[in-house]
C-alpha cells in the first residue's frame, strides 16, 4: 500500500481498536460500527475517507487488520483492541508451537512475567516465524520466542484465532516459552 493508504489504515486502527471517541462514534459490543456512520464521522472530523478507499484498505492490508460484516455494511478491527469489545471468537486448537516477536530489550521483563496482554485483550501470537520476526522488528532488535501452545492447551489455557489468523490467548507464562540463542 502506498503512504496514503497506510495513513488511512493507521487512522482506522486508532478509531476501531483504541479511540472511537476521536471521531465521536461508539462501537457495538462486538466492535462493529456502520460504515456510513464511520465515514461521516471521519469527514466531520477533517479526515474524509471514501468508501472505495476504505474497501481498498480492508482488502489490501497485509495484516488483514479489518473485517467487514457479511452484508458489507459494518466494519471492525480483527483484534488488538484496547477498548472493551467481545469479538465472539470461539476457542480453537492451536498448532503445537506458536511464535511471538518482540525486541531483545523486552526479554528481562518477559523472563519475570511471561507474555502479558498489557492494554490489549489478548497476547498476540503467530503461526510462523517470519511474521513474528516482522512484528519484533518494529520495536528494536528482534527476537522470536517459541511458545509451546500444545502444552498450554493441555494445562487448560484457551486459545482463539482471529479472523486474520492471529492466535490469541490471555497470557503466556514464561514456563511455556523457549528462547533462541542470542
Write the layout of secondary structure elements.
Blueprint: H1 3-18, E1 33-34, H2 35-44, H3 51-60, E2 66-68, E3 74-77, E4 98-103, H4 107-113, E5 115-116, E6 123-125, H5 129-137, E7 142-147, H6 149-154, E8 160-161, E9 167-169, E10 171-172, E11 177-178
Antiparallel strand pairs: 1-3, 2-3, 4-7, 5-10, 6-9, 7-11, 8-9
Helix pairs in contact: 1-3
Strand content: 15-25%
**Major sheet size, sense and barrel closure:** 3 strands, antiparallel
Q: What structural class is derived from the secondary structure elements?
A: alpha+beta
Shape: globular
Which parts are unreliable, with pLDDT below 50 for 5 consecutive residues or more? none
Question: Which architecture name of the largest domain does CATH use?
Answer: Alpha-Beta Barrel
The largest sheet has its strands arranged as: 1-3-2
Let me know the average pLDDT: 93
Q: Helix segment count? A: 6
Write down the domain tally: 2
CATH class annotation of the largest domain: Alpha Beta
Brief summary of the model shown:
By secondary structure, the chain is an alpha+beta fold. It has six helices and eleven strands. The radius of gyration is 17 Å and the shape is globular.
Notes on the structure:
This protein has 182 residues and is an alpha+beta fold. It has two domains: 3-77, RNA 2'-phosphotransferase, Tpt1/KptA family, N-terminal domain (Arc Repressor Mutant, subunit A, Orthogonal Bundle), CATH 1.10.10; 98-178, ADP-ribosylation fold. 32% of the residues lie in helices and 19% in strands. The strands form four sheets. A three-stranded antiparallel β-sheet has the order 1-3-2. Strands 4-7-11 form a three-stranded antiparallel β-sheet. A three-stranded antiparallel β-sheet has the order 6-9-8, with no helix packed on it. α1 (3-18) crosses α3 (51-60). The mean pLDDT is 93.
